[in-house]
Predict the structure.
Amino acid sequence: MSRVAIVTDSTASIPEKLIDELDIHWVPYYIHKGQEVWRDLSTISREKFYEWLPTTQRIPQTASPGPGDYVSMYETLANEGVQEIVSIHMTSKASGAYQAALAAQEMILETMPELRVIVIDTLNVSMCHGWMVIEAARSAMAGNSYSEIVARVKQLIPITRMIQTADTLKYLYMGGRIGRAKHLVGSLLSIKPLIGMEDGVIVPLGTARSRQQAYRMMVEMIENAVGPHGRIKIAYMHAAAVEEAQKLKDMVELRLTAVESIIAELSPALGVHTGPGTTGVCYFPVVE
């Protein structure tokens, strides 16, 4: 274990292999299905969840971990000898995780004042949030200081971008996470909406008449942002749509230089709000 521990939660949607390799510590979200409660990626898998979701007439509710969940994680790490923790969370404008972690920070420092904990709001979601966790964990494993790790995350917050498309926005709308893209909800089924995130809130980016056109628009948006053959680190996110994610990957990497690329499936706690079939990218430019 590196001397600085990196903590996040399940909505970062980081592939398990990377979580293990980079010694990332995570706390699961809650999914309420009637009276039954699932723990995201702990008591419900992606595969079983996405098989079940299209069959339900009632979308489940999600809840962020509470302060006690984060206190428990911080205590465990401290008891293992960790003295510094960087806790990284999805946008505070769509979830209570950041606030819960802040409360946990205050609580843990009352009993362990020697522990150093910082809680960071990424103002983003899914693998945009995940990239910041990954880069922080790599920095920690390289032996960089607490301050250097925090600086790396803060450097990524304004430059990490999401673009996403789906067959419908009804899941986002019903879950109250639609942000400023509400007017796209009533689009015809033949229209594929594109959404992104600005300052922690979902925003509309346009519409396409097919998935193929939506993917072409994504490529153009990325290219406009980083330049032709621009160097990027990119994650292709999907919800039970790995073949679509691969199609998008092939299109992006014909036009841009992927220094690193990852295919990642959204965790069930995010899939509740996106619905199956969602595909998108989270990327940031690499300047070296």
